[in-house]
Model the fold of this input.
Amino acid sequence: NRSGIISRWGELLLKNRDDLAAIVTTEQGKPLMDAKGEITIAANYIQWFAEEAKRIHGEVLPNHVGNHRLLVLKQPVGVAALITPWNFPVNMVARKAGAALAAGCTTIIKPSEYTPFSALALANLAEEAGFPPGVFNVITFGERSTPRNVELLLGNPLVRKLSFTGSTAIGKLLMEQCARTCKRVSMELGGNAPFIVFESADIDEAVKGCIDSKFRNTGQTCICANRIFVHDSVHDEFCAKLVSSMKKTLKTGPGFDDGVTQGPLITEKAIAKVERHVSDAVSRGATVVTGGAKHPLGGQFFQPTLLTGITVDMALASEETFGPLAPVFRFKNEDEVISIANNSNVGLAGYFYSRDLSQIWRVAEALEVGMVGVNSGLITTEYAPFGGVKESGIGREGSHHALNDFLEMKYVCLGGIN
Done:
């Protein structure tokens, strides 16, 4: 029954895809085609978890005494608080709630104050799908009241689990609050993804992958390429092809306009951060190849930007930009670039392009991240575990592993079996 209701919820997302996408574009700003793609992948996650709900298996263990039987039961952890971000306001709710509901938990969803209507629309569809009252709950707060209200939510002992996606700083604060009642937590936090182009790479494919990874959602994704490292021998070719592709394929404008690929940034604060990263890099010797300033459209639009001559002392080398800024570093050998790429307190995703099979294995194993894209700039799928290492988080979303974060194991020792 639970699987069937979750499945119907996913079907309703697809049935209402156009309306949901319009809501996302209106409140978040991403291009309408990207918003439609988000609804599709959200439905995919939901359908995946509808099937996984049927596969929550316990265990029968070898007994230690002849008249005993040992069992392991898997039971829902309880009420789950799900705090979701603004950059994928439908998919992040689907990815978290889908797993929690499949595990048998009830949910309290707190969407970003910038994108509440997407979550409320999903709640309306959840009710239509047949979830009983009190199973799928959405609470919304304004920006000023959010900290206090979230603290009250997490201070409630009835809430047994928190799943959060957002900045590392806020994640640490929420973990402290959850520690007071020993709640289970899973966190998908900030990233600083390296994107490495080795000398054996297919340069055209690397350029395409860089565009896909860096400029998706106008650079406002936690797994987008934040530091682009290009081998010295192919640096100039790569940069020339990248800037050409940027000018041909990237169009900035309102999300409802035809052909737009780059929408506005979410706030003026986000614009200011990109400007600061550009200004700091230029003051330290970087070159602006294209872009580098607010877009002539005004508002919260920023030009897709390519910088070269980037060095590790620049702010963008250690801070997540979250905007349409592509900074390119040169490197000379594999050991050097792995050392620089791993010199970060976060490790969510990493990418590299190479046609050397031995190098592919070495680098995939050496990168200190939770997810690696090899010769691909698009890695998100419901089939695979999504999450990071270091200060990029705890736990995984997606795949069959996701349900484990919402399940408790209970050991049962049954004696007196004659």
